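Treating backbone geometry as a discrete language has practical consequences that deserve illustration. The amino acid sequence and the backbone structure tokens for this protein are reproduced below.
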Amino acid sequence: MRRIVKVLALLGVVLATGRGMAYLWASRDTPPTHPALAEANLPPLIPVRDFWADTDAEWDYHVSGDGRYLAHRVVRGTQEVVALTDLSTDTELATIPELWHFYWDPHAPLLHVITHDERLWRVDPTNPARDAWVDITPRGFRNWNFATIPRAPQDRRIVSSRDRNPAFHDVYTVRPDGGGKELLIRNEGQTLAWIMDHDNLPLMRIDRAEDDAGRIMVRTNADGTQWRELMTVDALTTFWVVEVTPDARFALAHSSRGRDKAALVKVDLETGMEEVLAEDPELDLMRSYSLDPFDGEIDLVRRHSGGGEPIALTPRGEVLKREIMKYSPRVQIDSLGVYGPGRFVTVTLSPEARNYIYLLIDTLDGTSQELGEFSFRRKHLDKLVPTEEVRIPARDGLEIPALLLRPKGVTGPAPLVVEVHGGPAAHVDWNYHHFRQFLTNRGYAVLSVNFRGSTGFGRAFQAKGFREYGRAMQTDLYDAAQWAVDQGIADPDALAIQGGSYGGYASGMAATERGGPFDAAIVEHAVLDVGYQMRNNPFAWGLNEVYMTRYFGTIDADFETMETYSPITRAADLAMPTLVVAGKRDRVVGFEQSEEFLRRARESDHAVEELIFEDEGHGIDRWQNSVRHARRVEDFLARHLGGRSGGWDYIEIAADWLD
């Protein structure tokens, strides 16, 4: 589950004093000015603090492989902590603050925690005191990731690291205690990924060929020094391996080889022939779950639409599907956690895409129990709106998938926010989304568009977006807004566009286009100078930069087009109220692009607004900044589209105090 809540605090308001009364007055709601909203029976307004500073929040549940211990995140006082509980006695054993990540050991009921200083510790639930923790951080690395799950407790751990070159990984092994670093595979600069067999030896590798294709190689001798080519796939073809069989004869993979939509397949490593295990005629299958990484089976496959049930492939998968579908005919799996032999599974679900519940499923007994419910759902379920899946005809006849949320209690055309996802090689799932619900609660319809070029809907749909930034990819968004107007959903005089990263690019382009459909734009963490971005893409993208050139071209051949279709080139033509949001620590899209866009717009006397965070990167991570961002957005949209605002919230004092 995406982390909706970060480190939290609640600052009380003393209403008995004159100052307290001033705070109470200052925090009252601002009513809507848009006629359809002013006449509507809107639900109660949910405070910003309940969205991003909920002191009752509990989430991120994980149960040990033996089913005895539970670890989950919870807010206690002014801190986010991980609570460790003995489920057999319902006794809380400890709370652990300041953790970045945690997970259970696959072989024993021991919790592994990663602290913010990037140290990895082993915690015994029977003795969780801080001085009893054992440091098992892989030694001798600046950055590292465990690449596989060890088959036995004494097995050496496989570690991938970019220390030598940030563009690609080398592979090492370490002892279970983190020591004994040894190089296993040195990357010669062309390998995107290695796939290990069950003895943790390299079985397959995927190399980047000179023509940007992916060359799938298979080991031909025991020590991995000799390889042969199994197949070649072009850069548009989906192919990634999720598991290999115990006999190392087959690989289970998501593949679109020879088909438009990615399917789950079983690949013969001798011939390259594929057997389809699961597919969907409308969607790429992008997510699969294996309860035992060593049995050579996939148990469950998830669809990313709300209309399709998960696909069960094994008896344990059938148990998971049955227990999940008890909650609603339309339910999305947000995350699934399994440790050890795969009997006990923790699942985060969003029934009807209306926030989260947390389950513990026993796949052996075929039973489930509810571990918890996200407090926001418990408090505000009646105020949340459903997420509809719609199809929108583009001007050239292409059908564009989108998600639609309508504000409660509104009968006439409402103000609309068109949301644009980043990537652009990405897509929006049918799932719960906190910020969309925030906007609908303020009175806005939200239309989140999977424009051409989005992933998840097949190779042909994605390819239609290549080299179409600022053109067909952009007009898909305009056509979506017009569709909402034609359907009586949206008021043509109250339309905004919002997005981050590539979505910020599209919002910036819309903001500089006179005669377009929109009345306001929110441009976040945005690519605003395409040529500059293509010259300065993160070096760590390395061998995967081909995906950017598919969409945007190359500097040598396409620089003039990049300049023509860059918002920064058009900043002097800013055509509407615009809010620019950026983080100065952004290492993906440099903050300097937003800074230069603001400078050029202001040189032309445009009163563009800005929200610049000193302590954020490519997105907003800190809860304090989420509060500030939400407050600025709701006030900005209220001024220009006529929705309502919660106004000043006393949590803003806490945000400043705890910065």
In short: The first strand starts at residue 58 and ends at 63. The longest helix spans residues 623-641. The CA atoms of residues 530 and 562 lie 5 Å apart. Residues 1-26 have pLDDT under 50 and may be disordered.
